[in-house]
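Our platform keeps sequence and structure together, in a single record for each protein. Such a record has a labelled line for the sequence and another for the backbone structure tokens. Nothing more is needed to write down the fold, since each code stands for a local backbone conformation. For reference, a complete record is included directly beneath this paragraph:
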Amino acid sequence: MSDPVTKSEVLAALKAGGLDITDPRRIAEAEYQARATENSEKACVSLRRDLTEIRKMGRRG
């Protein structure tokens, strides 16, 4: 099983995507998403795929 996604990874992707990472709701959501990958390989793969797409959105803009 691959390593779970970390809160820092989620926030870094959001920042790269041009999103505000100082919003407490966004930070809480990042923590929630990261915790959801701790016991699920499928969730981990899915979240990493989503984070890649978020990063791409920031490069296009």
Q: What stands out?
A: The CA atoms of residues 47 and 56 lie 14 Å apart.
